[in-house]
Amino acid sequence: MKNKIGTLNALYPLPTVLVGTVINGKPNYITMAHVGVLKANIVCMGMAKVHFSGHGIIENKTFSINVPSTKQTVVTDYCGVVSGKNTDKSELFTSFYGVMKTAPMIEEFAVNMECKLIDHLDYGSHDIFIGEIVNTFCDDSVLTDGQIDLKKIDPILFDMNTRKYWQLGDSYAKAWSIGKTHPKF
Amino acid sequence: MKNKIGTLNALYPLPTVLVGTVINGKPNYITMAHVGVLKANIVCMGMAKVHFSGHGIIENKTFSINVPSTKQTVVTDYCGVVSGKNTDKSELFTSFYGVMKTAPMIEEFAVNMECKLIDHLDYGSHDIFIGEIVNTFCDDSVLTDGQIDLKKIDPILFDMNTRKYWQLGDSYAKAWSIGKTHPKF
What we know:
The structure is a homodimer. By secondary structure, the first copy, chain A, is mainly β. Chain A has a single domain (about 15-180), classed as Roll (Pnp Oxidase, Chain A). Chain A has helices spanning about 55-60, 75-80, 150-155, and strands at about 1-5, 15, 15-25, 25-30, 35-40, 40-50, 60-65, 95, 105, 110-125, 125-140, 145, 145-150, 155-160, 165-175. A seven-stranded antiparallel sheet of chain A has the order 4-3-7-10-11-6-5. A three-stranded antiparallel sheet of chain A has the order 2-14-15, with no helix packed on it. The first copy, chain A, is globular and about 60 Å long. The two termini of chain A are about 30 Å apart. Strand 1 (about 1-5) of chain A pairs antiparallel with strand 11 (about 125-140) of chain B.
């Protein structure tokens, strides 16, 4: 028996990240989980227009995505409860830059992606930003045999409906592989 | 010390779902993880044009998102290793419909979202589909106090880079709340 529960979005959990921009000459960081993958190095993001960060992204046509670990939950959530409009968040982290000088990245977070804005859609209350990753950076500490290891990242997974953060559990199967054990295969 | 690792997309894990369409009068389901949230009831999805499902979405301007549990990993992955071009996947599940008759949903999966296509971008190798959720359905089994409980869904989390499926761990903090314990707050 199915319950009809309105138009609730149940596509969770999603990884929580800090999106970096430069506004008024200073790095600013905003907490986001509505960032998704469209194809290999193309990402999309839906950002409410009330946020300060959108102005920086529209002006500079760049942004960064910085992936924290659960140990960095307090500072990550803090960046979502205060606005860059009235709080200087530039001193919270050591910022570094790749090829673009308006996509500040967070040294203390293990994974960083430098992005160029390639599309911008106006969805009323929200800007939809589509970006191309031009450089990815990571710490040695999250690599296993040269590959990024999710368990070592220990990402902060977010559920909008209950407003809770979740940890990642264990890896248990190979994709494009376990399906071959289906009786119809 | 940061390693530069090309333009790798490290925005994982993402929830694995089956996207439903009707093609040639029959339900078809494809495994997807590149489905994201743009705002409340708006989702986006990047789908390689080689897939059969895109034709159904473009023709009908509808699709569904069906959320499996880890217990359904074999059939979920199976839908990603065989193509609707030459395999009839309509008999794998009991399909049901909401208000639209071309967005088949999977009875056996605990959460289902019926979506209307509202935007379609051409990104070369990929179609970008943007949809509005018009109805969400869920089983009693995943509700706690009337709210969808991620632990009860037990979603299949996907990492593209290592091609592994992961389980959800535990909930450990409240969003928009734990950040208020930061010394700068």
